Each structure stands twice: as C-alpha cells, then as structure tokens.
Amino acid sequence: MIYVDLWSDTLANPATLVHNAxxxxxxxxxxxxxxxxxxxxxxxxxxxxxxxxKLDSVGNADGxxxxxxxxxxxxxxxxxxVLIIDEVQHAISSNDGNQLLLALKAARDAxxxxxxxxxxxxxxxxxxxxxxxxxxxxxxxxxxxxxxxAAYPLLKGDYVEFLLNCxxxxxxxxxxxxxxxxxxxxxxxxxxxxxxxxxxxxxxxQEGDPDLFLPVIASTLRSAAAxxxxxxxEQLGSLAQAIFNKIAATEGDARGIFSIDAAVEYSKMVGRxxxxxxxxxxxxxxxx
Length: 288
Known about the structure:
Elements: E1 2-5, H1 14-29, H2 35-41, H3 66-77, E2 81-86, H4 95-111, E3 121-126, H5 130-138, H6 157-168, H7 179-188, H8 193-203, H9 210-235, H10 238-248, H11 260-270, H12 276-287
Parallel strand pairs: 1-2, 2-3
Helix pairs in contact: 3-4, 6-7, 7-9, 8-9, 10-11, 10-12
C-alpha cells in the first residue's frame, strides 16, 4: 500500500508528492532488510532493476511511465497494489495534478482488465471537501469520471476536541476557544477539517477573547467558500441560476423542478421561453 497526503504540503505540486511516495515505496521494495521487502518476499521478490527500470526516471520523459512501473510491481509481487491519496481534491487545482490523475487512470487500465493479471491496482481518493471530491467522478472531463463514489460520515465534536487538545500542548489556554464554540464553528464550516484548521490559524493571530473571534472567522470563511460555489452556478448561465434559486427557496425537498409549471416559472426569471427538455442537462451540471 502507498499512502500520500496532498494536504501535507499544499504548496507542492500534487504530482511531485505522489511520485515521491511512489519512489520511497519502490526503493524500500529493493532495499535489503526493509519491512516492505520482507513482507513481499513471502509472495515474490520485486526487482525493478531487472526490468531495466531506474527509480529516479519513473514518470520522467526519458524513463518508464508510472503505469509501466506499477504494472511491473504487480506482476513481480503477484499481489494487489493500493494507492491512497488523501485530500485528493488538490490534484485538480493544477494542470500537473490533472495529468497525474490521467497517469493513474492509465495505470489502472493497463493492469486491471488483463485476463490473467496476478494482482490489481486499486486507487482510493479521499477528501474533506465533498463538492470538489465529487467533481472527480461526476464531471465527464475528469480522469475518473463514472468511478464509484461514496460519502464518508461527517467528523463531529470528538474531532474538534482532538484538535483543541493538540493545540493545548503548544498554545496558551487563553488563546483557545471553548469546546462548545469550536464545535459550533466547525458546524458553520460544514464539518470540513481544512477550513477548521484555517479558522484556528487565523484565531491564533488575534488578540482578545477567542470565543468572540472564532464565530466571526468561521462565518467569514463560510461566506468566502459559498461565494466560490455560487460563482460556479453563475458560470452555468441564467437557467442554472433560476433552477438553483427555486431549489434554495424551497422548504424541505424541492419537487417539480422538471415540470411544465417549473419551465414557465424559469421562463419568467430568465426572460425567454424555457423548454422542458432544457432543464435536465442543467440540473445534472448543478449536481456535478
């Protein structure tokens, strides 16, 4: 198993973080006495050098592709290879990150469909930003469009308590908020760890009562995040905005958004006739 946390260095190129993790793991597989190698010896000896691979050149223009290297590992080890990328949504923030996802898809497609493959390549991406993570499987232009997507349970108060306990080891008590206020702020931020850590970093820069500052910081960050998402809705056009407004203004579940009556309502909002068949593609885009 290879584990990479893209959150460990948000300024680094996501592709670099993954390649570094792959390099470290593959190097361990060829290092005498390493725990990874000893484990795999029960199944098979892994020697990429025998296949003509130089670890430093994997993924480079003059070396083997990531797909070739991972295929060789699966073939020699005769077992499954699992890559877990945490905070995977950071990968779509740059062209290099998107190219990385395409390379991982190429590795999956090179290994898994083979009739007699001795093992499979399993890629698992997790992230704290649900909307962005969902884009990885919902948008057609993404490498893993259509892949299985499952929602994890939200983190709650015990996570916030853990964060405060960690901070208490290095930060004065009077700089930290009460658990109740911190939990409320976490809820305001949509139970997103990344945003909560950002809020706490800003809080520690303030002088004054943390229980007064944190709610304001959380509300400000929430508004900034909402603005980004609403800009995406605006980019989809006036019909998308009309549908979004109808759904947002409804108490409970919105119903009849594809109906003839809804089309008449949308027509008034956008200033032109809206046909029923126009609605579904826009709703699909909004869901994505």
